[in-house]
Amino acid sequence: MRTILNFNDSWQFAKPGEAPVPVTLPHTWNAVDGQDGGNDYWRGTAVYTKTFEKPALAVGSRCFIEFAGAAMTAEVSLNGHALVRHEGGYSTFRADLTDFLENENTLTVSVDNSANDRVYPQMADFTFYGGIYRDVNLIIVPEEHFELLKDGTPGIKVTPVVDLAKKEARVTVETWQCGGEEVVFEIETEGGILTKAAPAEGGHALAEFILENVHLWDGLDDPFLYTAAARLTKGSETCDCISARFGCREFHIDPNEGFFLNGRSYPLRGVSRHQDRIGLGNALTLKEHQEDMAVVRELGANTLRLAHYQHAQEFFDLCDENGIVVWAEIPYITRHMTNGKENALSQMRELITQCYNHPSIVCWGLSNEITASSQVTEELLADHRELNALAKRMDPTRPTVMAHAFMLEKDSPLIPIADLASYNLYFGWYLGELEQNDEFFDEYHRMFPDRVIGFSEYGADANPAFHSSRPDQGDYTEEYQCVYHEHILKCIEERPYLWATHVWNLFDFAADGRNEGGKDGQNQKGLVEFDHKTKKDAFYLYKAAWSREKFVHLCGKRYVDRAEAETQIKVYSNCGTVTLFVDGNEFGTASADRVFIFRVPISGEHTVKAVAGDLSDEMTVRRVEKMNPDYCFGGAGNVVNWFDQIEIDPAFFSIKDKFGALMANPGTSKVVGAIMAKASASRGEVAEGTKGNKALQQMMAGMSFESLLKKAGANVISPEQIRQINDMLQKVKKD
Fold it and tell me: How far apart are CA 248 and CA 262, in angstroms?
């Protein structure tokens, strides 16, 4: 019978030229330098070694070693004998140790995360941690055993097909094995155990079952799981046993009405997740995965996009158990590599092979923002067609999907290759106006009413140390993140045709190339900080929209010092009615859908309490003479309140008008064009980056000139120059 031994302890780790140090797996060598900014974390080849005694093996038994994740390329040898080379940092792979085992053994694993032109990912907005960062196991099996080597297979594949009208499921169970005579299949049901046997011929066996009155895997409401087991036998002897949990569900996606689960409308509304954590990097244990799932459940999300690579099997299991619908993908991201096709295909084979049985997964992601630094060439299209064909061949029960960068034109030939499409849009954060998110999807849906479209990324960075009573795009305040998400949530709810929407991101994560927003080395678009514990205010907006757990939350608890005589107090709640108390006195009661706004006079230090039934939340605000400088991010994107002091006559053009309208008018285009040329010379991306790209040009045209000027920054165009520009525009009357 099969024996699995954890192999995480007593390793030695060494970088080139350094003495070995003891480590326990999971381990990454970039837990610190991959999170501190500067884009200077060490990428190279390091060596893990372990000495061990030969395990007890019965006659004919085989001993395999299993790596659940080693990033990015690993070469394994035993006692000087090369065993396996694996390229891809996020999937399971194994090697057979048996023929090279001695009484005393030295296992050597060289792990390489250095830059190259063939193993994905090589360019992306996250840290490419190096190390053996998931569990390692020894697997001891009899000579006759279920397959272990090919693409890291679990050896068993379960395909349920649900007939809702008949309330039944046809379940096909397959295994692959080395030797044996017969495979005995079992499915444990609520009414008993169903059993069938099939010959173990040609290394493959198959049985079909009908589950009557099938208990459906029904998302958050009832994520019921069955178990299928297989026993490999020879004569009267059982050689090996394996099992897999699975769920029976039916889903389909309508271009106008979105996602349906088990025959009912089930809008997919959720978040994306990166797997790393501050201080740990990507070297997580089951404990951290469970903590992350608890945050997902508190939020009330019903879907996760597991970006941008294959996540740990333990986390897929948690998604199955908790009814979370999953988008799973490979790290074919940002930059297409001519030499990377075979690696992309290999990573897709491993993703589908290893994750096929998870009922939570509903689609396979082919790529993410692959045109962000690559042109749409015939080679890129051909590689995507081949990836798509592979995924459909391996799994005809699930659709394929791609996430596209906002600058990819809506009529690109890349989009229809996959079954589904979603866009990553950041209008209202990096560039553009919030309303352009709404306009983008409305235009796409008008152009392609028969295509499925979703919203795969959207977000705004927020550092909870920064605050403003006048939040604005680019200020990194917690308050602007709330303004941003309030708009996007409304945008989503008004468009039921969006098949799935995913906030970017549930947690802040490491991107060592970033040095912005007061925290180096982090992307701060998370609803929760990098510790995976501290929740930003925007988290509670989505909790109010999605969670069934009643609560009340006062926004701005970290915004204590306020330099105004009257301040806005914002409350998020799903209770419908909230009463506010100031210094113990009832101030007012409001009824609203999620967002409750109160205007409260302040003169000193005040205790503010929000109450909804038996629920309450409390905070302190304090009137100060001047804005607390610690609340302000000092970068070029900071709020410039002098914009609000400029007088505007709406009958004439001004900086408030859209850039496209100003460029279209002969009386204003020269002024605006000259300013944009100056900004372009300073920053580069404003004019040069838009040449030849209709989508970018359309995005720029939809932005207010004021927004573009704020992005340029006062160091490029001074406040006095802005006033002069506006005065010139105000001399041109609108038609």
Answer: 9
Distance CA 108, CA 305 (A): 35
Strands 498-503 and 268-273: parallel
Considering the candidates 369, 478, 479, 706, report the single residue annotated as catalytic: 369
Over residues 471-477, mean pLDDT: 92
Determine phi and psi for 108, rounding to 5 degrees: -125, 130
Q: ∠ at Cα 301 (295, 305), nearest 5°?
A: 90
Q: CA-CA distances (angstroms) from residue 644 to 313, 356, 564, 706?
A: 52, 55, 16, 10
pLDDT in tens, 232-290: 999 999 999 999 999 999 999 999 999 999 999 999 999 999 999 999 999 999 999 99
- 265: tokens are 């409308």
Confidence of residue 707 (pLDDT cuts 50, 70, 90): confident
291 catalytic per annotation? no
Contact 424, 441 (CB under 8 A): no
DSSP letters, 363-385, are EEEEEESTTSSS---HHHHHHHH
- Cα–Cα–Cα angle for 529, 67, 104, rounded to 5 degrees: 130
pLDDT tens digits, 628-643: 999 998 643 333 444 5
Main-chain dihedrals φ then ψ at residue 89, nearest 5 degrees: -90, 5
**Residue closest to 484 by CA, chosen among 461, 515, 514, 457:** 461
626: Cβ–Cβ under 8 A, 6 or more apart, which residues?
563
* CA 529/CA 536 separation, integer angstroms: 7
Gap between the Cα atoms of 202 and 178, Å rounded: 9
Calpha distance 566→629 (Å, rounded): 19
Rounded CA separation 613/4 (Å): 52
For residue 688, is pLDDT > 50? Answer: no
- Amino acid at residue number 420: L
Using the 8-state DSSP alphabet, how is residue 19 labeled? -
Pick the range with the lowest mean pLDDT from 90-99, 653-662, 691-700: 691-700
Is residue 78 within 8 Å of 105, Cβ to Cβ? yes
Residue among 645, 646, 663, 650 nearest 702 (CA): 663
CB 154 within 8 A of CB 18: no
Residue pair 126/329 in contact (Cβ under 8 Å)? The answer is no
pLDDT at 193 exceeding the cut of 50: yes
d(CA 228, CA 186): 6
Residue with tokens 């460029």: 663
Is 128 strand, coil or helix?
coil
**391's tokens:** 């995924």
- Is-contact 171 211, C-beta < 8 A? yes
What average pLDDT does the structure give for the chain? 93
Distance (Å, whole) CA 635 – CA 173: 58
Which domains are seen in the chain, by residue range?
A: 3-143 (2.60.120.260), 154-246 (2.60.40.10), 256-554 (3.20.20.80), 643-729 (no CATH)
- Give the pLDDT confidence score for residue 720 in this predicted structure: 67
pTM score of the predicted model: 0.91
